[in-house]
Write a structure and sequence with these properties.
This protein has a domain of 192 residues: Vaccinia Virus protein VP39 (Rossmann fold, 3-Layer(aba) Sandwich). The longest helix is centred in the middle third of the chain and has 15 residues. The chain has 319 residues and is α/β, with parallel strands linked by helices. The chain contains 10 helices and 7 strands. This is Methyltransferase type 11 domain-containing protein. InterPro entries: Malonyl-ACP_OMT (IPR050602), Methyltransf_11 (IPR013216), SAM-dependent_MTases_sf (IPR029063).
């Protein structure tokens, strides 16, 4: 019998991973603690969720470790960690995280590995928990990435994730599109696309995770002007890395975009604000002892009987 050759699953390459590595390397070499207030805040909010999980998770994988904010947060929010493996596409980020770990007297063994998040090198069932904080929004194949994490986690292992999504940088996107259309007569992606919150549950399921939980934060960050916002994005390695990013924009278009931004998205003092939409997610790898949904048809009560129950409830006339 002749076999059938199935094509590999096609993954649309939205982001230029080589460019993103260079951006993160450049940002790490010019690292300034004050630029990372947002990343630190999100890392703390993500790790706060561990306080609701009464389990000791000793071995941890931090994917896209950046500048060690998860390493620092775990030292405070989860005392049971014994070993943490820090990975990032940028070598300078891994070095920065390892350097930060030396200042933490928590006894956690910290190992650094330079690795692209899209190609994880870990063996099956290696970790109790995996965390990804503000790096997933640059990954082309999110279901594939999550499948790799699923494999690296032990059964009933925990995944914690946070990523920018939804309407993040909506104001910047709109103003740059309007300016480019007016000056150059056309538009191109000047701000990278973000995943919609409504798609995250499906992405987690395709990655093989169960008992998933998703919630969001909407933040508004103030800047002096659009140019300070763009310097912030560059300093934190969050600037555009889309393959479809436009080329020449020009001084005239930049100034028009800045004027539009201040006109439509500023406060009484003239400062502009940028919307940041953070999507938090929790998922567990499958395990036989996990709570399972009831089989179809196993219910003991029919919704058809609900009307009869409601009719038999008499109002309390004393109220």
């Amino acid at each position: 019998m002749q076999g059938i050759l199935l094509p590999k699953r096609y993954v649309h390459q939205v982001f230029d991973r080589k460019l993103k590595r260079l951006q993160r390397e450049r940002a790490a070499r010019k690292f300034e603690q004050g630029h990372y207030f947002l990343h630190k805040e999100v890392a703390n909010r993500l790790c706060e969720r561990l306080q609701d999980i009464p389990r000791v998770l000793e071995t941890v994988l931090d994917v896209g470790c950046g500048y060690g904010h998860i390493r620092e947060a775990l030292s405070y929010y989860h005392k049971g960690v014994k070993r943490i493996v820090e990975t990032d596409i940028a070598e300078s980020c891994v070095k920065a995280t390892l350097e930060k770990s030396k200042s933490l007297s928590d006894g956690i063994e910290t190992i650094g590995i330079v690795s692209d998040e899209e190609f994880l090198p870990f063996q099956k069932h290696s970790f109790d928990m995996a965390i990804s904080c503000l790096s997933m929004h640059w990954i082309n194949d999110l279901p594939g990435f999550l499948s790799q994490l699923n494999r690296a986690l032990k059964p009933d292992g925990l995944f914690l994730g946070a990523m920018f999504g939804g309407d993040t940088l909506h104001e910047l996107r709109v103003c740059m599109q309007l300016a480019e259309e007016q000056v150059h007569g056309g538009v191109s992606p000047r701000v990278s696309p973000f995943v919609q919150t409504s798609d995250v549950g499906s992405i987690l399921s395709r990655g093989g995770f169960k008992l998933t939980t998703i919630d969001t934060d909407r933040l508004s960050v103030k800047f002096e002007d659009m140019f300070q916002l763009m310097r912030f994005l560059q300093a934190t390695g969050e600037n555009n890395a889309s393959h479809l990013r436009g080329g020449y924009f020009g001084k005239k278009a930049f100034q028009l975009a800045s004027d539009l931004y201040r006109q439509h998205y500023s406060d009484n003092e003239g400062n502009i604000f940028a919307s940041i939409h953070v999507v938090y997610m929790i998922g567990w790898t499958p395990h036989p002892d996990q709570q399972q949904p009831k089989k179809r048809g196993s219910a003991q009560f029919s919704l058809k009987d609900l009307g009869k129950v409601v009719e038999n409830i008499q109002p309390d006339e004393s109220h």
